Amino acid sequence: MSKPKLLYNRDEMLKLNIEVLKNRCDVTVLDIAKIAQQQQSKYYPNIDINLCIESVEKILTFRDVFHHIQFSAEVDRLAQEKMFKGPIQDILYYDLGLFGLDETLGLDVARNYGAIGQTNFGDIDVNKHGIVKRLNDAGKSGGMVHTMMDDIVGAIAAAASTRVAQVMNEDLALENPTYQKISLFDVKKRKR
What is the pLDDT of residues 24-45, one digit of tens each? Predict the structure, then answer.
């Protein structure tokens, strides 16, 4: 018997996450990037969608996000196939509003970008931006279960939105004429 593969590199995780998002809930990187763009457009009206796509792809390479996506997709699949027993089957299948574990996992993904990531997730979760609304509505209409994945997708968008803001702010800081780029080695030299 061969040893199971437990560890994946960043490229593999990105590829597998993109596949699971597409196969499980017909979500693309662009769908998620559009939410990040919408969320940041009030601060940066001319935001480039490519920065949003890059941010989503970056988040899809994080190991803990990989685990969240893979786990959540399987929970939803099993609930959809009615493979759980007891009360949890109906709670997951009908996406009980008081369940909360889906939001907890979403908050954990958004937490990769601190309190602002979590705040962005709250906005997406409450207002159901973009593809998150479609997933939520499909899950509520019966037959499809996206109890976990609508929150995971929203959390990825929230983290990407926060990363976009950080990149944009860094770009603005670099425009400061008094800015002098220093490296870690320069800092060490000054301390001597």
Answer: 999 999 999 999 999 999 999 9
Owner of token pair 């685990």: 67
Cα-only R_g, the chain: 19
Each residue's pLDDT tens digit, 79-135: 999 999 999 999 999 998 889 999 999 999 999 999 999 999 999 999 999 999 999
Q: Where are the domains of the chain?
A: 10-169
Residue carrying the six token digits 């939410």:
35
CA dihedral defined by 8, 11, 13, 16, rounded to 10 degrees? Answer: -120
If one looks up domain 10-169 in CATH, what number appears? 1.10.3760.10
Beta strands in the chain (DSSP E): none
